[in-house]
Each structure stands twice: as C-alpha cells, then as structure tokens.
Amino acid sequence: MIHSLFLVNSSGDIFLEKHWKSVVSRSVCDYFFEAQERASEPENVPPVIPTPHHYLISVLRHRIYFVAVIQSEVPPLFVIEFLHRVVDTFQDYFGVCTEAAIKDNVVVVYELLEEMLDNGFPLATESNILKELIKPPTILRTVVNTITGSTNVGEQLPTGQLSVVPWRRTGVKYTNNEAYFDVVEEIDAIIDKSGSTITAEIQGVIDACVKLTGMPDLTLSFMNPRLLDDVSFHPCVRFKRWEAERILSFIPPDGNFRLLSYHVSSQNLVAIPVYVKHNITFREGSSQGRFELTLGPKQTMGKGVEAVLVSSQLPRGVLNTNLNPTQGTYTFDPVTKLLSWDVGKINPQKLPSLKGSMSLQAGASKPDENPTINIQFKIQQSALSGLKVNRLDMYGEKYKPFKGIKYMTKAGKFQVRT
Amino acid sequence: MTDSKYFTTTKKGEIFELKAELNSDKKEKKKEAVKKVIASMTVGKDVSALFPDVVNCMQTDNLELKKLVYLYLMNYAKSQPDMAIMAVNTFVKDCEDPNPLIRALAVRTMGCIRVDKITEYLCEPLRKCLKDEDPYVRKTAAVCVAKLHDINAQLVEDQGFLDTLKDLISDSNPMVVANAVAALSEIAESHPNSNLLDLNPQSINKLLTALNECTEWGQIFILDCLANYTPRDDRESQSICERVTPRLSHANSAVVLSAVKVLMKFMEMLPKDLDYYGTLLKKLAPPLVTLLSAEPELQYVALRNINLIVQKRPEILKHEMKVFFVKYNDPIYVKLEKLDIMIRLASQANIAQVLAELKEYATEVDVDFVRKAVRAIGRCAIKVEQSAERCVSTLLDLIQTKVNYVVQEAIVVIKDIFRKYPNKYESVIATLCENLDSLDEPEARAAMIWIVGEYAERIDNADELLESFLEGFHDESTQVQLQLLTAIVKLFLKKPTETQELVQQVLSLATQDSDNPDLRDRGYIYWRLLSTDPVAAKEVVLAEKPLISEETDLIEPTLLEELICHIGTLASVYHKPPSAFVEGSRGVMHKRLPARTGSGEGTESPDVGNVAGGSAPEAAPSIIPSQGDLLGDLLNLDLAPPTTTGPPPPTSGMQMGGMDLLGGGLDSLMGAGFGAAPAVMPASLNAPVGGGLGDLFDLGGGVGMPMGAYIPPKTVWLPAMKAKGLEISGTFARRAGVIQMELVLTNKAMSVMTDFAIQFNRNSFGLAPAGPLQVLTPLGPNQTIEVSLPLSTVGPVMKMDPLNNLQVAVKNNIDVFYFSCQYPISMLFVEDGKMERQVFLATWKDIPNDNESQFQIQDCHLNSDAASNKLQGSNIFTIAKRTVEGQDMLYMAIKLSNGIWVLAELKMQAGNPNYTISLKCRAPEVSQCVFQCYEAVLKN
C-alpha cells in the first residue's frame, strides 16, 4: 500500500512529506529528480519510476508533483486515483492547491492526510465525511476558534461512514432546497490539413449541486438515453435501475458532486462546431513566412461560439511575428514561440481572422515541422451530443425543491493540423 | 491567520522555547505549541527531543489536541521506545472510551507505533476492538492487524488474530469485509503459501455482496482478491462475471481496471460459443476507451494494460483505432505507448488511416517520438503486406526531408522490409546510397552496410562504398565492424576478381588488429572458409535467408497469461512477472489463466494437474528482452553489440590459437566448436545472414548428425525359456536419420537355428522393418549374433497402449515367437525438427492450453548448455534460451516422424537438481512418452 507521500514543487524542493508506515528517507526522491531532469517538459516525467527498493508513482497537478512511495505490488491506478483525490480535497478545502496554500494550512493538510489513509489503506476520501471530521479553514472559524478555544476537529463520529449511503450525512437541513445540474461536454478532436475530421469524441459530465433537506431520492431521465452507452457513475447511482430502465435513480450526496461522466466515441458522428481556414507557409531561402488564419462557426445548433482562444506553438526558427487580428488581441512570446490569440465571440457575419507575416532567422533553412493550432471555445445552452434531460423527480421528502439544468459545450483538446 | 506562522521561529533556542510552551498551564498555548511541533515535523525538522513533553499533553479530552499528539507519537515513537511505553496506558484507556471515534483513533494509532516493546501490550485492546459492536472500530482494527503483522508477524499468528481476521470476511458490514480482505491480502503477500485467502463459493458470495456496497477502495481490494479465485466451472464463472460487470461503469479507474482483470481471467473459462461470451467482449471495450480520456498518468497505466489486452484478445478493441491517435500535447510517455498499440491494431482495414497518422507524427518535434513513428511505418509494412508499397514510398518521402535522424531510422526499417519482401523494392537502393554520408549512428550504418553487401551485385560501386567505411574501421562500433566484415566477404564472393584486395584488408583488420573476440572469430572463420573451400563459403555466406516474420515483439504466451492475471498492477506496467522486481515477495504465487472447462472430458490427468499446481510457486519468472533487443536478435544484425565482460584475453594466445586453427581443417574447427554450439544456436536459427558462426554450425547440423543420440541399454525382450531356446535382447537407435532396431539373438538350445524372419504388428507410428532380418549364417548352439534392422515409418498405423508399444513376431525354423517391447519415442525425432523462433512462439500460442502438461525431472545435475547439447543429440532442438534470476529457461522443439510437433519449455535452476518441463502438443497423448525420453536422455 501507499508508504509515503512527498510534495515537490517545480523547482525540485520537497516541501512536505508524510509517512504512513516507517519513515522513508527523502533521498528516495533523488530518483524522481533524475527523471525530472531528463524530461524535456515538466509533464513528461514518467508517472511510474522504479528505484532499487521502492516505486515512485507521481502525478503533476497545479505545478506540484505529488510523489507516492510504495514498496510492494500495489495497483498503480489505485495510487494515481488516490493522489488525484488528495489534490481535489486540498482544492476543496483551501480553494486553490498551491504550495503557499498547503504551507499556510500545513496542520490541516497533515490531519487530512492522516484521515485519508491508514497504514496506506484509504480511509475517508469522500469530501462530505472529511468535512465532518475536519472542518475546512475559514477566516471566521479561525477567529471564533481563537476566541472560544474550540478546534477544527469534529467531535462526532462521521455518521455517514457506516450507513448504507456513506456519501451522505444525516440531518441535512436547508431553508432553500435546490438541485442544479450542469451538463458539460468537452469535444476532443483532431482536424487534418484539409479540414476533414480525423477523430472527434465527446467527454461529457453531469455535475450536480444538490442542497436538499433530509434524505431525498431523485430520479433523472433523459430524452435520448441511448447516447449514453459508455458511462461512469457516482457510487450513489443505482446501476440495476439504469440497466433496466435507463433512468438515473439515486440518493444524492450533499453539495457538489459529479453524478456521471460519459463518453461519446468517435464511432458516432460528432458535430464539429468551428472550422479554421489557415495558410501558414515558409519559403525556402526567404526570411519571411506568411500566416493567415480565419475562424468560422460550423455546426453550432444556432448558438453562438464564445470565449474563443487560439494558440499555436510556432517552429523554433520563427523570430517574431507581425500579425493583424480583425478582432481580439494576439500575443507572441519570442522565447517560447507560443502564439496566442484571444478572439472572444465569433460573429458569423464578420469572421475573425489573423493575418500577417512571420520573420525567420536569416539564412536558416525553412522549418520542418508544421505548427498545430489549438482552439478553445465555449457554446452555452447546448450539449453537442444532443443529450437532453427529460425530467427530474424527487421522492422521500415532502417539500418542493428548485430545480435547474444547464448545458454547455467546451473544447477539450481541439487540434487543427496545418 | 494561517498555519504558516508556525514556520517562523526565532533563531535562538527554538526547541527550548517549544518545550516551555508545551509545559505551559494554559490549554490554548499548549495546543499552539503542539501545532508548531507538528509543523516542524512535517517539513522534516527533528523535534524528537520534545518527546516527553508532547506525550505529557496526551491526557486530554480535547480531540484535536489528542489527534495532534497521536500524529507526533507515530512519527517519533521508534526513536524513543522507552518513552513510548508511557503512552501505552492512555491507549488502553482510549480503547474503552464510550465514543467509537476515539476507540477507533486509539487502535489506529497504536498500530502505527512501530516499537517492538509496545506491541505485546496492544494485543488485548486490539482483540477487543476486533469484536467491537461498532463496525467503524472493527474495520479500523482489521487494518491494525496488518500493521501489527508488519512489525511482528509471529506475534500476530500466535495471538490468533489471523483467524479473527478471516472471520471478519463474513462480517455484516461491507466496509469491514473490504478492510479485512485488504489486510489479509497484504499479509498474504509476505506469506505466499499461507492460504490466508482461502476462497470458497460461500466466501465468494459474501465478497460479491460486499462489492456492491463498499467504498471504491474497498471494491478494488475485493476485486483483486476475487481475481485469485478459480471458479469450479463455467457456470460459476459466468455468474461472477455478471456480478462484476457493473463495476466497469465506476468512476474510479482503478476499480474499472480491477474489474477488467477479473473478467479477462474468468472469461477464459467460458465456452466461446456462449452468447454471454460475445456480450462480455463487447462490454469490455467502452470502459477501456474511457480510461484514455482521464489524466495522462492514468492514461499511461491504462495504455500499458491495454497493450496486454490487445495481445491476448485483439477482437476487443479492433474497431477503436482512432482513440489511440496521438494528440500533439500528450506527454511523451503517452505518445509512445499509443504508437505501440496503433501498430498492434493495424490491419488491412485501417492501414491507410494509420499510415497517414504515422506520416504526420514523423514531422513532429520530439526526436524519440519521431524515431518510433518511422519505425512504426516499417512495422506496418511487415505486418500488413498490402501496405508495404505505400509504406516504402512514405519512407522514401521521409528520407527526402533529409532530417538526419529520420533518414537513419528509415534506413534501418527499410532493411527490415527488404528481409521480409526480397527482390521487390530494391529499386530504392540508389536513393538510400545517396544518404550514406549522413549516417552517424551505428545501427543505421550497420543497416546500410548490410544492404550494400546483400545487393552488392546491383550496386556498381559497392566496393567503393564499403571501402569508404573501411577507412575508419577501428573507430566503428562492434556492430558496424561485424557487419562490414560480412558485407565485404559477400561482395568478394559475388565479385571475386575486383575485390580480392579489399577482402584481405578487412580480414586482416578483423583478425590481427582487433581486440574483439567476436570479430576475430568471425574473421578467422571467413578466412578459413575462403581459403579452404570457396564453394562452401558461398553456400554458407550467401545462403538463402529465411523471411522475417511479423509481430516481432509479442510477449511470450506463458508470460502474457501471467500478466493478464496481474492486470492493473505494477507487473502489468512493466510487463514483467511480479517476482522479477517486487522486493520482499520471494516465491510469489504464479498466476495462470484457468482452463476452459466447457471442452468436455478433462484432458489433463489428475496427476499432471497436481504437478502443475504444486510446482507453481517455485516456477521461475521469465523476462522477455525489450523489443529492441528481440528485434535485433531476430534479424541477427548485431544490433546490440555483444557484451564483453572482463579483460580481453591475451592477444598472443589468441594469435597462437588462430595459427592453429588455420593449420587444421575446417572439420576440426567445427568439431572443436561444437561443444559450444547449442549456446549460439538460438541466435543463428533465424538468420544465417550475418551470423557466420551460426551458419557454420547450421551447416554442420545438416551434413551429419553428431554422435551422442541417446540409446537405451539392451534389454531382454524374449527370454529363452519362452522361445524354445532363442533369446532376443535388443534396443533401438537412431543413426544418421535411420531408425534401427538392434537385436542380439542367442541360441540357447541344442539345435541350429536358421530361416529368421521378423514382422511387426500395426503400431502407433507405423514402424515397419525396412528390409529382411539379415541373419545369413545359421545360428549354432550357444552362438550369439548381433543384427541391426533398419526400420521405416510408413507401415500401417494403429494406436497402441502404451503409445510406444511394439508387438513383434520372430520366426525361425523352429517356431514363431511373439513378444512386445517399448521403443523410446526419441527414435522418431527427426533431424529437421528445428523451428524458427517466431514460428515457435506462434505455434506455442496456437496450441490450446488444455494440451499443455507439466512434468518434473528429478535429480539431474546438468547445466543448461550441457542439457541442451545432450538433447540436441537426440534431435530435441533448443530454439531459445533465457536466463532469469539464475533460472534457465530452454525452449525446445521436436518433430516426430509423422509430422507431429512437440514444443517444450524446460526450466532449470542453478543448484536445484529438479527440472520442470512443460510440453505442448496438438496430440497431447505423446507428452508422457516425450517426457520419458527427456528423463532418459538427461539422466544418461
């Protein structure tokens, strides 16, 4: 099981360590640092590193490496999942997960880690339970604590942990009962030079914010449930009911949680919401290159495309650029060669474009690689796959809750090759 | 106000100040002080000096303070064992607190205090907590047993905690069950043979029920535990699969992968024609695809596992090629894995798409990735014949880019394509030659030299090209030197008139000026060949090469099966069996896929099954060489320079040896070298191209079988009493490819015997006399005659029991006598029983597991080379050999006279006189006989 945890910042310092069994010397991290040095980019550090006596399994999030040390055969996915859970919990508790935030709350961090793992076995990882055990720090509470001498630690046994619904605590009370669901879809796509789709898939999630009194039992049904043939559920969802009736039936956790995530694979036809016309050329023997880029909406189901951001890693040979955007602002970092263009909203009547020239190193041969264009965008009030919620019902409680469903489409890894 | 204030301390006497604060009367000040101590501890400062003061704060009803003190205790108890005893009383008291949270906290902390002296005090409280009324306490106590076991295993066993833990598997609370399983699994890891997790259908049912209700982590433990169970029949297997399938939709990827493992393993038992089998296959694809949309670290582990799954059951993901397409901002470790799987999934149906992608990747920035992409194009060409032409033209396009590393990589793969499709794409040689100067990597240079040598007759200036390489001969790597030597010899054999000088130059460079024994040896062999018999040299060096086959990097089937049982573990990430790398787990149980039971009668005899089961724990790990190695090895292009360990032998001695070799004939060279032949045989089997040494021995094998085939001692088949005075004893032998029955006829009667004749009854392999029994002179009283009767294998066939039974009738002037004898089946092993490594691998995989049987050979004291040598004498050919952790694995092939192949894997451990042998054959009946032969050959 998980033996120890080291937190390493981007400059390679260990700023926190925690051991669940015997103490492992921090020199074990030297192997990690070696791998870090070898990697060209921070994200290229391999997630599983063998050392003579241990294995180091790491994740990189918020520019902090969370390095777990294990000694025996442990499923690496289990470790990685757990590490991500640790990060999520920190974020949940402190708002952000940065080195400063962790250092500021080091005692809470230590208490959390102690609650989350016992002898390397996960103990309490549900944020509901953790929050009952260790209250998140707030300014108010800190003040109150100082005055009254009370502490962050709950005096109660976390009741949820033993009930049939471990994800929900008992005795929840709200004056305003509300249940909101966000259907968020991210489209990952690779578009080739000629504009045809090589692969496109949709990763969707339904995130919920449920603040309901008592023990409500919810059912959620869809207009087109057959879209959901590859789904992962929150443990609260009754799988049998889904199998039989294609209805989501569940007792929700209290607060924010991810109800389900789904995947619409490349085998279904996925609509591509934007298109790009591009002309990026370098001529042999010339120190100038042409750059032209035009964006336009494609299949957007009548909704506007907003928050468009185009970025591209230009070849190393490019010294500088001289471009004119018809809208928005563009920047080019001559050191990292990263071009980014904040477009904003796409106006279908007047398509945004970015045109101009690039200056190259004089005398150098023309770059071999073709830059890939990365596009981010958002489309409000629509889920690209067409998934629609039919109705939401509540049983088990008498009051009438506020209900709301929101749809959104975002670009995930949306890449256009040139 | 934040905790960071705890980090700012005054320089002077920090510990001293804390000490004062800890002993303060004010509760609040005390707590602040403990917080400061903890903060210092977390950043690795040594605050152990404060131990007594902190322990003093333990007696408190403030829960947070208690927890903080516990935190501190866990960290430092080890360094202050005497002081830690002070804390024991508080623990014992806390274990009886009315608040279950405190009870649980106490039992949890107790277990984390890794001090021997304390442990015995903890047994009583722990025993109570294991039977606590509150499940929260019970589940915490279950983990505590594992902790205690880690500190003092004997104590845990003596106190009977393991049995209590086993009882908890039937607890009413799913979380308790999950933790008990987790604790037992961990303990079992250090006791591989303890049968701690002895699963039966009832406990399986308990686990499956708990599976639905426990936390995600508990589900992982339970699923991993389920994977160790072997269902009794296909129905049980199916019902477990049905209950595990919903886990595929879990949000936690570790749960998903553990479920995949259980399904992959139990599926093995389902009959393939079952509808449910097909349904299950379909259900497995989506969760695997979904894993690829997770964080890159998860993707990496998932991809390594998918790599195994695709090899075992390619049908699952055959339509999902696109999800493996690489995004330009994937981390490099994800890119490389995706590429690997793309090639595995490549087929005629999707090859166009794959090639287009690969070409795109070849223009990316990352050098490692680009190289692998170029290599992948070559592998596609070899795998999908229809695409070869497009692949070659794509590679040519890439060579035109003149990007140095792309060109080099492309040349290396084009060489492979030449070997797969000879005489098809040689038109591109001219283009390749243009890039000769830009090659600076040994592998690319070696590949180019090979091409030039191989096609020397078509390249006008081949001699100039090779000569140009020769200038810096001693600066080249061994790989290039060896290749250059062979290429020039080839050139000489093709164009002897113009290149005499060149060949002499290279031979003298290789033999006189080199310190590398491989190079010298190869040089001498060529030299001698050329000087003794140029025609033979031509036959050897320019011999027809076997084609290389596709899929050169498949994992060995037995290893693959084991890895499938370890899906989701570190073993699956490294593609090595767990025993190969996880520390402290000596003697890990080797897991095997269960056999399909639907196939009717059990083909394995119970006895064999026993042996297989019993020997599993000591069975050895095997590691497949990394892909590069294997590929290189197969092509025998000396891609990996031979490792020379130790100082080179004194040159003068070698010179002497060389002189001597030159003096003697080729035959003596072969004779002298034959002792070592089996060791090099595997490498040379595949490719006589570059391996001159191997070629020679191949040749040797073909010309005449070396002596040393095992001949059993003569036994009396027909005693005189039963045959009116005629005694017949005899044996069987195989000499120069002819089976002979060697008979000794003794006349113990008073009269002369004449008119001998012999006949066989129909038998399993169609043995029949190939000629009459040659007893020309009459056999007088007390006379003995030895005759040898050549046998053929074309007689009528009838299955005998035992298989190798032969019924013989002998006639003489007195009467007809009948007797039966058993012939060693090794008589039937034919000389051309060698197999290509790839064919071997494929055949092994192809033969159903039901046909595998395992035997043990006891008390044999040969090393692997000697054994392989001995077996070779009886036409049992070693195809490959691997050494892992002092254990040698020999892979061997045998061909019977009726065309049946028998494949064998012989495991031997240095110092252990017991060998394990696994035999696979389409006709499993012969296994027993073959095993007897092994035993006979090895022990004699």
From TrEMBL, chain A:
Regions crossing the membrane: none
Cellular compartments annotated: Golgi apparatus; Cytoplasmic vesicle membrane
Keywords assigned: Cytoplasmic vesicle, Golgi apparatus, Membrane, Protein transport, Transport
Signal peptide: none
One Gene Ontology term, aspect cellular component: Golgi apparatus
Gene3D superfamilies according to UniProt: 3.30.450.60, Mu homology domain, subdomain B
Keyword Aminoacyl-tRNA synthetase on entry: no
Membrane topology label: Peripheral membrane protein
Domain MHD positions: 176-417
Short name of any one Pfam family annotated for the protein: Clat_adaptor_s
Entries under SUPFAM superfamilies matching the protein: Second domain of Mu2 adaptin subunit (ap50) of ap2 adaptor, SNARE-like
Keyword Membrane: yes
Biological process terms in GO annotation: intracellular protein transport; vesicle-mediated transport
Assigned protein family: Belongs to the adaptor complexes medium subunit family.
Protein name according to UniProt: AP-3 complex subunit mu-2
Organism: Oncorhynchus mykiss (Rainbow trout)
Upper classification of the organism: Eukaryota, Metazoa, Chordata, Craniata, Vertebrata
Encoding gene (name): LOC110525861
Automatic annotation (TrEMBL), chain B:
Keyword Protein transport: yes
Lineage, broadest ranks: Eukaryota, Metazoa, Chordata, Craniata, Vertebrata
GO molecular function, one term: clathrin binding
Domain Beta-adaptin appendage C-terminal subdomain as annotated: residue spans: 829-939
Lipid bilayer topology: Peripheral membrane protein
Domain of life: Eukaryota
Full protein name: AP complex subunit beta
Species of origin: Hucho hucho
PANTHER family attached to this UniProt entry: ADAPTOR COMPLEX SUBUNIT BETA FAMILY MEMBER
GO terms of biological process kind: intracellular protein transport; vesicle-mediated transport
An example Gene Ontology CC term for this record: endomembrane system
Family, per entry: Belongs to the adaptor complexes large subunit family.
Transmembrane segments: none
Region (Disordered): 592-623
Domain Clathrin adaptor alpha/beta/gamma-adaptin appendage Ig-like subdomain: 710-820
Keywords, sorted A to Z: Acetylation, Membrane, Protein transport, Transport
Pfam families, per database record: Adaptin_N, Alpha_adaptinC2, B2-adapt-app_C
InterPro entries to which the protein is assigned, alphabetical: AP_beta (IPR026739), AP_complex_bsu_1_2_4 (IPR016342), ARM-like (IPR011989), ARM-type_fold (IPR016024), Armadillo (IPR000225), B-adaptin_app_sub_C (IPR015151), Clathrin/coatomer_adapt-like_N (IPR002553), Clathrin_a/b/g-adaptin_app_Ig (IPR008152)
Annotated localization: Endomembrane system
Gene3D superfamilies attached to this UniProt entry: 2.60.40.1150, Leucine-rich Repeat Variant, TATA-Binding Protein
